[in-house]
Specification:
Structural class: alpha+beta
Order of helices and strands: EEEHHEHEHE
Radius of gyration: 15 Å
Shape: globular
Helix content: 10-25%
Largest sheet: 3 strands, antiparallel
Number of strands: 6
Strand content: 15-25%
Bound molecules: zinc ion
Distance between the termini: 19 Å
Length: about 150
């Protein structure tokens, strides 16, 4: 998805102000087509961002914690992206976990951002995953990678 070319958009934080040096890359999650149960290269969001794999009731809800602290922008993207395709896709936790592990194994990758509840759910253990902070946007709709 976005590498460093900013979207022309009236939302100044969208998708990332930090994507300005060519060292930051966003990757879509992997999905399964819910009708065919087959892997797909398509995504529920027409722009890749903004359809979240939400925290389950027993998982940490970082988005709620950030909102409670007044960071209104944290979940802004999911409020403006159409959610109508969500039922056609299942989050592919196995392939997404593999993708993160492949990215983490690259020497040139310094940091990876993914929402804390997905880090826990996918049992991701790489030390390259950092919490991006409530000043950013939620990362349960994509993976953000920063090169060293
Ligand atoms: Zn990013």
């Amino acid at each position: 998805m976005d590498a460093s070319f900013p979207f022309i958009n009236r939302f100044p934080l969208f998708p990332h102000l930090s994507h300005n040096d060519g060292k930051k890359l966003d990757f879509a999650f992997c999905y399964i087509d819910s009708k065919t149960s087959q892997s797909t290269n398509s995504t529920p969001s027409p722009i890749g961002y903004g359809v979240s794999e939400m925290p389950r009731p027993d998982e940490i809800n970082t988005a709620a914690l950030c909102s409670q602290q007044g960071y209104w922008q944290y979940s802004m993207v999911i409020k403006i992206v159409p959610q109508k395709n969500k039922a056609n896709f299942l989050f592919d936790s196995m392939r997404t976990k593999k993708l993160v592990e492949i990215l983490a194994s690259e020497k040139s990758v310094g940091k990876i951002f993914i929402e804390p509840h997905l880090k826990a759910r996918l049992n991701l253990t790489t030390s390259k995953i950092r919490f991006h902070g409530c000043r950013a946007v939620r990362h349960d709709d994509h993976i953000h990678v920063q090169l060293i």
